[in-house]
From TrEMBL:
Protein name: Aminoglycoside phosphotransferase domain-containing protein
Gene3D superfamilies: 3.90.1200.10, Phosphorylase Kinase, domain 1 (3.30.200.20)
Pfam family for this entry, one: APH
Natural source organism: Paenibacillus antri
PANTHER family the record matches: COTS-RELATED PROTEIN, SPORE COAT PROTEIN I
Domain Aminoglycoside phosphotransferase per the UniProt entry, residue ranges: 51-254
GO cellular component: endospore-forming forespore
Cross-referenced SUPFAM superfamilies: Protein kinase-like (PK-like)
Lineage: Bacteria, Bacillati, Bacillota, Bacilli, Bacillales
Amino acid sequence: MVTTEKLYERVEAAYDIRLQSHELIKHKPDSSFVAKLVAESGDAYALKSLFEPPERQRFIAESERLLAERGVGLAPPVRAKDGRLFFEHEGAPYVLYEWLPGEGAPLNKPDDLLRIVELSARFHRASAGMEYPSGVQEYGHLDWREEYAQRLRSIEDWLAKEGRTKSGKKGLIAAAIPYFLKTGEMAFRELKKSAYGAYAEGSAGARTLVHGDLHNKNVLIHGGSLKLIDFEDVRYDAPSKDLIRIHSMYAKRRAFEARTFRLMLQRYLEINPLSQDVRRLVEIDLLFPHVFERTLRKKKYKKMTEEEVAFYLEHERRRTEYAKKRFFGSDASSGKEGKA
């Protein structure tokens, strides 16, 4: 349990400021800590800890610093007196950020989605070619070949454990699983044929960061523009990871809109053009049933009604069919590709 008074005293010593007030916003022991601090000068700050290992926290903070220097809208971390971007208290690293007031971005209309996609495209583009200080450990995503295999096994395991029910929500999901397994296996085959190995080694297209948890609550409206916050999942990976996340948030309880999906990709590529190899990886990743698998693994269907589960499954099926036909033609195994 964090001793807050001692923590705030540590902040004053580390940053050479005098605090006027402090407000605890969130504290989950050994998980997250967020407080608003106001200095006697009137400057406001956010004090955060994710209770990550120091090397991981350093990567996050240095990524935020470098991105801010390249013009990405975010709350930059403040350097302590010793020049570091974080300090440690009771064994956990803490970062002090400039306070960024604002409201969460809406995600109700296609234009709302496109604005956030544009922001992500600028962020991804700005992250290419960043050089970290010596000693900073860089973090990437799990190898997709391992990830795809794990996710497919996860779906199969759910079917073996929960799929005996032939009615209700679980019955609907069990009936849909053969389709999503088939498309997942199809995406896996395409991945094996792709340039992913060279990409993972850094020799096929520029490496870029992804936010890792891109949804509208992690985007603030500040001064009339959008700002990114909460980079705790930042890592090197292909842009599809952020596109999948934000589109899945937009698509909740909304029928699949092919035009909006197409515009999302078009707008992204206008701002951050991708090499042919990386673009193909994005298409493969958009085909893979990541969202479906996560729904099973996180048991999100438990909070849904039977009608909502049916609606959701139909949405995911339509989105998958769109990706399959647009990117791979009607049959990827034949080697014919659809329109990109």
